[in-house]
Amino acid sequence: MTTRRDGARRQSFLLHPLASACTLLIVGLSTAHAQQANTAPEDKDMEQGNKPAVTSIVQDQGAEQSGPMATVNVSGIRRGIEAAISIKRNATSIVEAVSAEDIGKLPDTTVAQSISRLSGVTTQRSKVNGKATEVSVRGMSPTFNGSLLNGREQASTSDARSPEFDLFPSELTGSVLVYKTPDASLVGQGLASTIDLRTLRPLDFGKRMFAVNARKERIGYGSGSDLGSGHRKTLTYVDQYFGRTLGLSVGLTSFKQDNGGELKFDSWGAATSPIEYQGQTVQAINGFMAETSRRKSERDGASVTLQFRPNDKFRSTADLFYSRGEEATKKTGIEGAIVGGTGIYDPNAVLTDATIAGGIVTAGTFSNYKGDVRNHMFASKDRLLSVGVNNELKVGDWRLTNDLSYSKGTKRLSNYETIAGQPGNTPESQLGSISYSGFDGTNFNAVRYVPSLNYSDRNVALLTDVAGWGGGPLSPQAGYLSLPTIDDKVQAIRLEAARDLEWGPLSGVRVGVNYTKRDKSRLGEEGRLSIRNGDGYASETIPGSAIELAGPTGIPVAAFDPTGTLGTIYDMNRWVDATVLARDWTVREKVTTAYLMGELAGEVLSVPYTGNIGVQLVDTRQRAAGNQVDLQNCSGNSAATCPSSIKTGGSDYTSVLPSVNLTFDIGNDQVVRLGAGKQISRANLDNLKASMNFGLQSATELDPSLTGFSGNPELKPYEAQALDLSYEKYFGKKGYISVAGFYKKLDNYVINAPRQFDFAPFVSANTPLPTTGAYAGSTIGVLTTPTNTEGGNMRGIELSVNLPFSMLADVLDGFGIQAAHSYTDSSVNLPVSGFVNPSNAPVFNGAISSIGLPGLSKNVSSLRLYYEKNGVQISLAAYKRSSFIGQILDYRSESQFTFIKGETIADAQASYEFQGGMLKGWSVFLQGHNLTNEPFREYTSDPNVITNTVTFGRTYSAGLNYKF
After folding, report:
1. CA nearest neighbour of 363 among 432, 435, 442
2. Which of 41, 183, 481, 832 is buried most deeply by CB count within 10 Å?
3. pLDDT 10s digits, 639-683
């Protein structure tokens, strides 16, 4: 692990003795866990919690064993709060922190949820499971965060660089630090922030600790579907041996969940379509999709740390983190066009018995309805392993550190989609109809839909090619199967030398180098499913007898699990064409970061200050590979008829990143912080792929041309210049008030941009060329590729209050508040076309032409009220963010942008810890999540017109804790 020793030698910044003891105790990655702390001078330099840089050993002013252990009797909620306050106060940069309230107990069930209460930090819930899985800081997309575990970059199991936060069970996390300003020794930093998850360090505890936790959950109250259940179990053990020279911590956790059911409704973009009725053209609902999702998930995690500290000259830390998870989501529902058709077997409707109001069909019956009964299964298995070894040695005045780390993540996905209904050769006279009523032009999900056919009847809903999506009877498509695999491996080595100085304002210096090698790939197969041993119109009866309701519509449909049907009911016809092959890619990066940083301490106009100034030199060498179809010899979409080869590319570049952080002690427990620097975030890995595909499309409304898409292995990183200013007023170790402002100038942003391109080397005699317009007969066309371009400006203000009410009146002892609000604005204006690629496009593509910064909610607020006294702990929390552009996963598990409606989520916790007798050490607790039953809602352009709704319901849990 890499840490830093900010504040180790700060003569002008006086700390309350108890606050110092708490800092030394908790910030070394196990913040707020120990009941006792060693206040020997040796520990002043050990992992002060100010940054994940390499710490070194300070001068020997007394061996650890000779110093008495000072008892710190702070527990529960206040323990976590005071630990976080110590981290924030003693940092030389602008930092936010969350610390565990007890051993193995962050304030919330997920890491992302815990840090969402911090100023300027917000989360996005997963559309799949409703959990907070992604974190946005200061209005920027989650991809702009640098994410670390114990100060090290980690592999991920998604297309993104940073790992998903649900890979890290909160029970295995001791503290989370969010660095909002950069400094030179912070490796792996992001453009928005750097988030460091820290596990326990056993020698930071004063004695042996043991804790177990078990809880039961009931999931989905108010979801409109069946209730689900789950359970979580955790064990944590910390001990010290051989006179506290050897320490061991072990954390184990396991949970399983069955969500019961979630109701989803998609109004197809809240779209209406024109239809003729009695000689006039009116607008009717275009179509809809409604489904019920049932999900089962499980995750096991382990964290092991071994520390060896034989003397004050040497210490070594080895840590291991492992997480494995499985998730399977069964989606059952119905989808279909009402007015038009979705394929060549789906004829347009004829409207009868209609009620018209203002040109809108508020009720009516539509013929030729071909409902697609959906039985989809989306499953995934992931693994993440992280291993690190850190050694620190004091040689004379120098502190030498080396750090080795290895991280590997793997995710295997299986996406089955099956379709049932009436076969493609069903005569129109035998097709069903659908009626709806109660439509006012915008309330798509409140309309009553009634099909004439019984889609729960297995003689009606047959497994078959319903709409002709494959192109006809020669290529039937009765379903779809995708089997992608993501592999990521990160290896790193870091060397650092540091020493104290007394040279003017310089109180110390550190110089180091970090080398990181990353190999990541996304590979897989996908194709259409067809009925085995049948012709283009073949059908098969749905197995079993299960029936499910299609989401909130209440329409009954036949249900089954398609897992295992490949080879028994279906054959897979693998797609091998330019678009599909372009989804496969591999990327290799070799990044060398050299840094020099001086630590500062002095006075300006009698005002004491501390801080740092330095520079990073980041040398990046990136190489990417992708598939390139040989279009000169491609005559089909199979491996035999459409050969391909591997195309490679890459780029080398160097970034110079200066930074400065200053903290001014203006007296009376008040500090002013100033931070400035240049920041980068490397481009998303899937944008670096070297593949390309193209075809004859419209370059403009009038002129057709060859039009293609490609990745760009020569992309440079996102860049920004940042300026931060913060005022903080502390009330001892009990609380604080802070006001912060920030400004970022985005000098370099990445979007998909078109450019003129000659496709001559890639065309063949069979390649169709335009016959009209400016590009007639020409191989010159338009290629859209990820491109570096200018961004814009961002600015914001952040307010934070963290106070116990006992400061106001003794009668309020035990009560307290944590509150935060941030407002962020941006001048960034991006074309929607810049987010279109050959695989997908934003949900709002075609509805609007430009958007603001993805991830930006202008207003984010959080509030937590708590009471803690005599073993009783009660906490009420609420979190609110305004609407924003977020990312969801499409049916191929690829990222897709959409507008997400603002939300307010409320949680509550209550517990009681027995204070004596036979039950001492035991505690019981109750917890409620999403008490507002806030649904996940999408919209296309108007936030008042919801296009997609998922209702997760409320979750309640109860459990027992035991510790000694």
Report:
1. 435
2. 183
3. 667 777 788 999 999 999 999 999 999 999 999 999 999 999 999
Nearest Cα residue to 142 out of 241, 126, 152, 130? 126
Q: Please calculate the CA angle 520-521-524 and round it to the nearest 5 degrees.
A: 160
Q: Given the DSSP bridges, would you call strands 360-369 and 448-451 parallel, antiparallel or unpaired?
A: unpaired
Cα–Cα–Cα angle for 99, 52, 62, rounded to 5 degrees: 85
- The residue written with tokens 């200066």 in the block is 658
Q: Would you state the structure tokens that stand for residue 825, as one six-digit string?
A: 């604005």
pLDDT per residue as tens digits for the range 243-262: 999 999 999 999 999 999 99
- Give the DSSP letter of residue 914: -
Q: Which of 690, 694, 693, 692 is nearest to 715 (CA)?
A: 690
Tokens of 821: 């609000």
Phi then psi for 396, rounded to 5 degrees?
A: 65, -130
Are 151 and 52 in contact by the 8 Å Cβ rule? The answer is: yes
Low-confidence winner among 127-131, 208-212, 837-841 (lowest mean pLDDT): 837-841
The full length of the chain comes to: 964
The pLDDT value recorded for residue 842 is 82
Phi-psi region of 279 (alpha: psi -120 to 50; beta: other; left: phi over 0): left
Inter-CA distances, 243 with 37, 250, 314, 649, Å:
15, 19, 15, 56
| Alpha-carbon separation of residue 211 from 90, 102, 231, 432, 964 (angstroms) | 29, 9, 17, 61, 7
* Dist. CA 712–CA 834, nearest whole Å: 14
Distance between CA 461 and CA 463 in Å, rounded?
7
pLDDT, position 636:
66
DSSP element (H, E) containing 90:
helix 76-90
Q: What is the CA radius of gyration of the chain?
A: 30
In whole angstroms, give the CA distance from residue 606 to residue 669. 16
pLDDT digits (tens, 9 = 90+) for 297-311: 999 999 999 999 999
First to last CA, the chain: 28
Q: Provide DSSP, 566-598.
A: BTTTEEEEE--SHHHHTT-EEEEEEEEEEEEEE
The backbone region for 192, taken as left when phi is positive above 0, alpha when psi lies in -120 to 50, beta otherwise, is: alpha
Residue 718 is encoded by which pair of tokens? 């996102």
Residues 815-856 have pLDDT tens digits of: 999 999 999 999 988 888 888 776 677 888 878 888 999 999
